[in-house]
């Protein structure tokens, strides 16, 4: 996954998981790409792409491959049920007109993660933004959009926040640079409401928020924002997301992921303790 996703349609997390399960079943059965391809009368490349979740899981292909791999009938039925679910568009599909292709993978990862850790040096993370704050940012980021397009982009951002209210909500641990809370976005009223919202979000026991004060000096994450995802699926590795003006990168190689995770750990020690976050938010709000 360590590539620049500047185009193409991203698969759902479930499709990624099932692709990896197909590869495991094929390897366990000792079946080559060529033999698997012959079983369903396609090229070996098609089998590879199914395993990498680069294409949808065609049900007839899935059934025949599983039979070729010696999978029992009941297990095939269970797998096919999941494959049909995986082939369904994600909830964000209806926002596809305002959702960049390279960001679709992010929304899928975010929706299925069990742990989300992140560092943001510029703005409040999308999961924690108010509607007015989000709209103000989007008007800057998409200056040529119509008011309706900005509204839809803001709606999408707010819809993503629904996952924080789910029983299986991920644990979210964010480190925000002090700049995030001092940079005026949308005016004083919008910033006050945004800071108040952060205080409300802290009532959620699954959300931890730390502030990296200016006084902390240089820190290892100062090069830019990044987000780390961990999942409840053994088949899916941890993933780190970074972005630029040209698109995004998703890293899942262990050496890359460990580098980012170690930086997050070091930053969490250098930033203000979680217990001081409310106090800091209150002091900054008084300055507005």
Shape: elongated
Distance linking N and C termini: 43 Å
Fold-level CATH name of the largest domain: Endonuclease, Chain A
The strand count comes to 7
Number of helix segments? Answer: 12
Number of domains: 2
- The computed structural class is alpha/beta
The level of helicity is 40-55%
| Proportion in β-strands | 5-15%
| Text of the CATH class of the largest domain | Alpha Beta
- What does the oligomeric state look like here? single chain
Query: What is the name of the CATH architecture of the largest domain?
Result: 2-Layer Sandwich
Helix and strand sequence? EHHHHHHEHHEHHEEEEHH
Model description:
A 7-stranded mixed beta sheet has the order 1-7-6-5-2-3-4, sandwiched between helices. The chain has 12 helices and 7 strands. With 288 residues, it is α/β, with parallel strands linked by helices. It folds into 2 domains: 11-86, 434 Repressor (Amino-terminal Domain) (Orthogonal Bundle), CATH 1.10.260; 91-286, Endonuclease, Chain A (2-Layer Sandwich), CATH 3.30.870. Helix content is 49%, strand content 14%.
